[in-house]
């Protein structure tokens, strides 16, 4: 598939020998837009558009993400593949993991209190919420994504480079339209229910949450990067109507059989600003090295603070790190 090509090229011609060194300042000369790496592999602009820009894994497009970031991602994914598919998901859905962890917590879990400010003082730290409530503690673990943390007033301020990371690190735009089909039109036209295309509906992924693995219970239509932002500008209702029309134009058998159910934009999420953090050219060999730095009584965790693991794995690794930080005093 066209979308697989960039990762094949990364695997065959890795920019660095050890992907875990992706954020080493010694690799600053390689901290260039991913589009430049793909061009060096012989891809022209149209090949780059088809292979990456239509559905970028990181960034709005290939010019918006560092080659070093992509090297990191490629190495991590290869490690996950080597670990085997049983590591990809929890039975019943990955939500089961945090739910099980939350059930083991002792003490109160206070929800619905967005943080407005964090103030360091002689006794530790005071957290002020938007509703005026305040909480004081000797130590603070902050897991806010950087896109949310930049809306929190921290005093005294963070060191310059760490503050720069909070302000400038981007988060992945991904928007998803959930559809159901009143009839299995894919049986009528003979094609698979899922699609990858360079059209407005981009990627259509069948959901299989029925009694058998073969039953298609819904269709998850996903846009990433620039296309996700285009969907968001149109608004949920208009975007979903256009998605349905696009699928029907490509697959006439689907006409009148699709129903829109839900629209979700990660970029419009106030408390995350996107699906996950990524680094642009020039950022990868500077900013990742300071994001996790302890600031007085404040320890930072979350997938964005880790430089060897991504996603849930990165979040869990960061949790272990901050626990040890606090125990060390």
UniProtKB/TrEMBL annotation:
It comes from the Bacteria. Residues 69-327 form the Amine oxidase domain. Pfam families: Amino_oxidase. Belongs to the flavin monoamine oxidase family. PANTHER family: AMINE OXIDASE, AMINE OXIDASE [FLAVIN-CONTAINING] B. This is FAD-dependent oxidoreductase.
């Amino acid at each position: 598939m066209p979308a697989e090509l960039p990762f094949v090229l990364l695997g065959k011609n890795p920019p660095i020998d050890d992907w875990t060194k992706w954020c080493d300042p010694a690799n600053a000369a390689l901290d260039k837009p991913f589009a430049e790496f793909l061009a060096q592999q012989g891809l022209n602009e149209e090949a780059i558009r088809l292979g990456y820009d239509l559905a970028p894994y990181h960034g709005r497009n290939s010019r918006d993400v560092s080659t070093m970031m992509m090297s990191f991602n490629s190495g991590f994914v290869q490690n996950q593949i080597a670990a085997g598919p049983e590591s990809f998901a929890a039975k019943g859905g990955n939500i089961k993991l945090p739910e099980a962890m939350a059930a083991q917590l002792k003490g109160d879990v206070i929800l619905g209190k967005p943080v407005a400010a964090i103030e360091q003082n002689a006794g530790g730290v005071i957290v002020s919420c938007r509703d005026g409530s305040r909480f004081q503690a000797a130590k603070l673990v902050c897991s806010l994504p950087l896109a949310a943390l930049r809306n929190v007033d921290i005093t005294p301020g963070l060191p310059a480079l760490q503050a720069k990371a909070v302000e400038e690190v981007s988060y992945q735009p991904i928007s998803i339209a959930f559809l159901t089909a009143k009839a299995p039109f894919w049986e009528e036209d003979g094609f698979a229910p899922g699609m990858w295309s360079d059209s407005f509906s981009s990627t259509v992924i069948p959901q299989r949450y029925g009694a058998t693995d073969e039953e298609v219970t819904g269709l998850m239509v996903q846009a990433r990067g620039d296309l996700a932002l285009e969907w968001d500008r149109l608004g949920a209702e208009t975007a979903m109507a256009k998605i349905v029309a696009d699928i029907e134009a490509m697959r006439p058998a689907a006409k009148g059989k699709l129903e829109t159910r839900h629209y979700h934009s990660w970029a419009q999420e106030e408390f995350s600003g996107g699906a996950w953090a990524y680094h642009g050219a020039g950022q990868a060999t500077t900013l990742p090295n300071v994001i996790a730095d302890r600031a007085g009584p404040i320890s930072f965790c979350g997938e964005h603070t880790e430089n060897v693991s991504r996603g849930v794995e990165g979040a869990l690794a960061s949790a272990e790190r901050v626990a040890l930080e606090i125990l060390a005093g």
